Amino acid sequence: MEIEREIEELHAASFGWAMSCCGRNRQDAEEVLQDVYVKIFEGKARFDGRSTLKTWLFSVIRRTAASQTRQRMLHDVLTAKWARRELDPVSPTSDAAAQHAQTSEALIAALQQLARRQREVLELVFYHDMTVEEAAAAMGVSLGSARVHYDRGKKQLLARLNGKLSL
Amino acid sequence: MNLQQAFDALRQQEAASAPRFDRMWRARAPRSLTPRLAFAAMLLITVAVLVFQPKKPQPSITAWKAPTDFLLQTPGRELLTSVPDLKGSRQ
User: Fold this and answer.
1) What is Dmax (Cα atoms) for chain A?
2) How far apart are CA A25 and CA A19, in angstroms?
3) Whole-angstrom Cα distance, residue B55 to residue B71?
4) Subunit contact B14:A15, Cβ cutoff 8 A
5) Closest residue of A to B31, CA-based?
6) B3 and A16 in contact by Cβ < 8 A?
7) Per-residue confidence (pLDDT) for residue A83, from 0 to 100
8) Contact state of A11 with B11 under an 8 Å Cβ cutoff
9) Is A44 exposed, middle or buried (0-12, 13-18, 19+ CB in 10 A)?
10) Do residues A61 and A32 touch, judged by C-beta distance below 8 A?
């Protein structure tokens, strides 16, 4: 199955995007990605070729994550669960890994402070090597809107990271 | 380290910890039956209540009393419904 092979090639990137859409909660990201795969496997989500497979897959992940977040919030309200969701700790194994982990933690913390659209467009461009146009398609917004989010988000991110990453 | 390198580092970390594709692709999401059962039970109870609702007997029109009747019971109402004794008051 051709699409299965292509999706497999995108699996690591898809997981990273799912992590982004789920506030870097690993368990939620895995649930979302599995749900997306089930949708594709069962034919509930079909690739129609109007965009690249990656753009389409990322938009499905984004919509599924948003839907699950709403369901989770409703469930939490109904069951009066207000447990804090914590980020998964990064476990470094060497000095270089520890430095990377520190950088990543600073980056994640700065990203969490941005508006959702700004965070999404920056991650799609910098993390997933998409163009702003492709990011706009994955986010379901106009190109102009994506450019504004990109410019504002980048300025804010750099301001928050100034000094922490020796930029 | 610039912004792109920071994102690259994050991508490498998360890619290394990504779960296996085949495990996720083949697995069916375990869908809980609880919400569906709860919804079905609620629907059944609602239908049962609507269908088997005991019907109240219709009251006769002559026995009917306006629910706001008590508002007409004003203080000193008896003075307006009785004739004053003028003869007695003269003496």
Assistant:
1) 48
2) 6
3) 30
4) yes
5) A35
6) no
7) 52
8) no
9) exposed
10) yes
For CA atoms A19, A102, A130, B26, the dihedral sign is negative
Distance CA A69, CA A84 (A): 14
- Rg over alpha carbons for chain B, rounded to the nearest Å, is 40
d(CA A99, CA B6): 11
* Residue B9 phi, psi dihedral angles, 5° rounding: -65, -40
The alpha carbon of A72 is separated from its chain's Cα centroid by a whole number of angstroms, namely: 18
For residues A8 and B18, the answer to whether their CB atoms sit within 8 Å is: no
pLDDT by 10s per residue, chain A, length 167: 688 889 999 999 999 999 989 988 899 999 999 999 988 888 888 898 888 999 999 999 999 999 988 888 877 777 765 555 555 555 555 666 677 777 788 888 899 899 999 999 999 999 998 999 999 999 999 999 999 999 999 999 989 887 666 44
